[in-house]
Specification:
Order of helices and strands: HHHHEEHHHHHEEHHHHHHHHH
Number of helices: 18
Radius of gyration: 22 Å
Largest sheet: 2 strands, antiparallel
Helix content: 55-70%
Length: about 500
């Protein structure tokens, strides 16, 4: 308990400093009233998350706070993204008499029940929602992918290949959880964000949350784990602590910070002071180095170059970006971190890379043996890939989808996000001359999606990676739907009707 209190003091001190420094930037994208309320909720939930002995006590405080904040917030999606990782995504099973449990409840699902679902219901009641709520191709692809997951039961990987049979109750559970965890998230983001201001405010709140995590990651990397009420363990690489803060894993933290960096590239044109633009960029990259995630580094680099290549004045921006990257690389190589960074780069013969190579060979061999709908119980055929943790770690999202749901599943999964990317790109081309600032915002969305597609090639589809995949698709859909004169925010979404840019 004493260690938790000490960690809480550090967290509140560092996060309080970030909120103070970020306030002038945040107020460029949101009202003072919304900023103050969201900040209050963030601090209350963080404090409760540290001092609560279990998740149920945290939920007892979090539920009324989230309901209150959601009812008074002008942009529930911004509130959702700020609080997405306010505590680590570790939950508890909801007990049911005579059963092993209903389903797991964590902060992600608390936000879905208390923020996304009520906001969507209010939005659907508003008459202006009809035009934006028409089902499109992306909805069909996402729901079809859900139907495939419900219909095809993937047996869990248990010791000695113990097979748990499926049941009608489990089918219903999978359907409900898919609608709650996946489709509701995409639907709410793509429909509720109906204006330029709402889109920028939402990603600004995500950047604010990640700025706090970046500062904490740098402290955690240089000092120690800041801890959480669930008592998770340290992650290390070559004897050094890899920060994970409240993201649940260092890989997830690296992904989130790379996406926040991409969002910031699209927002920083609205910030006049150059030192603030540079300071936020350095903060995100400091957090990325704290996470010590090679996937996050690669993703950040891909986001940077994609953003420059897609936006206005692409040739000059790519050339300038290459010069900046070379200069930064030279500085890192010459610094005390140089040798440490080089040691982390992939090398032939490393155990992790050898495992990935064997996984790719065996996994695709099994997947292509059942090409259309995959193999829902592949574990006996991959037993030699079981690691010391006792699991077969499918560290490739595309392989995982194809392995369990076949090429049909992979087509639905990729077709969904690529369709949103293409539509966003076409919209960026339209705005390049008439509205270059908003074209840059669209370019940042494309860059984040491309970075995501690169990063999930070497990671499992879980935690923040999974959530932000569907958030990005929703933002891309909302961006592509915007007209030159964006509609006013529906009064039913929030309690106030704010003016839009």
């Amino acid at each position: 308990m004493i260690a938790d209190i000490k960690a809480l003091i550090v967290v509140l001190t560092l996060s309080g400093t970030i909120f103070v420094l970020a306030k002038p930037i945040a107020l460029r994208f949101m009202s003072m009233e919304d900023f103050s309320r969201r900040r209050l909720v963030w601090f209350v939930l963080t404090t409760v998350g540290f001092v609560s002995p279990n998740f149920w006590l945290y939920a007892l405080v979090a539920v009324p706070m989230l309901v209150w904040a959601n009812r008074n917030d002008s942009n529930p999606i911004a509130l959702y993204l700020l609080l997405l990782h306010v505590v680590p995504p570790v939950g508890v099973i909801i007990p049911v008499l005579g059963n092993n449990g209903l389903f797991s409840l964590d902060n992600y699902r608390l936000l879905a029940f208390c923020v996304l679902l009520p906001a969507t219901i209010r939005y659907r009641k508003h008459e202006r929602a009809a035009a934006a709520s028409v089902f499109g191709a992306m909805d069909i692809l996402l729901l079809a992918f859900g139907v495939l997951q419900v219909a095809l039961y993937v047996a869990p990987d248990l010791p000695h290949h113990f097979f748990i049979p499926d049941s009608p109750t489990n089918v219903l559970r999978r359907a409900v959880l898919y609608l709650l965890d996946t489709y509701l998230l995409y639907y709410a983001v793509s429909r509720i964000c109906q204006s330029r201001k709402q889109l920028q405010e939402a990603v600004a709140c995500f950047c604010l949350a990640c700025a706090v995590m970046a500062a904490l990651a740098m402290f955690e990397r240089t000092r120690s784990r800041w801890g959480n009420p669930n008592g998770t363990f340290y992650l290390t690489r070559d004897g050094a602590v890899r920060a994970q803060v409240s993201a649940g894993h260092s890989i997830a933290l690296g992904y989130l910070l790379a996406i926040a960096f991409g969002f910031w590239l699209g927002l920083q044109s609205q910030i006049k002071r150059r030192m603030r633009r540079i300071g936020v960029t350095l903060l995100f990259w400091g957090g990325l180095f704290g996470a010590f995630s090679r996937g996050g580094w690669l993703g950040g680099a891909v986001v940077f170059f994609t953003f420059n290549a897609v936006g206005p004045r692409a040739i000059s921006r790519v050339a300038k970006g290459a010069c900046i990257a070379l200069a930064v690389g030279a500085l890192i190589a010459a610094s005390p971190l140089g040798d440490e960074v080089l040691d982390l780069l992939p090398k032939a013969g490393q155990p992790a890379d050898e495992y990935r190579h064997r996984l790719a060979e065996r996994g695709w061999e099994v997947a292509l043996a059942n090409p259309f709908f995959g193999d829902q119980f592949p574990w006996p055929k991959m037993e030699d890939l079981r690691q010391g943790e006792g699991i077969i770690d499918i560290v490739n999202t595309y392989l995982g989808v194809t392995l369990n749901y076949g090429l049909v599943g992979l087509f639905l999964f990729l077709g969904f996000i690529l369709l949103g990317t293409i539509r966003t790109y076409l919209r960026v081309r339209e705005l390049t001359k008439s509205d270059p600032d908003f074209a840059l915002f669209g370019a940042s969305l494309i860059a984040c999606i491309v970075g995501t597609l690169i990063m999930i090639d070497s990671s499992s589809f879980m935690l923040g990676c999974q959530k932000m995949f569907y958030v990005l698709a929703g933002l891309a859909t909302a961006y592509a739907r915007l007209t030159d004169s964006p509609p006013q925010q529906p009064a039913a979404v929030g309690t106030r009707n704010t003016s839009q840019d």
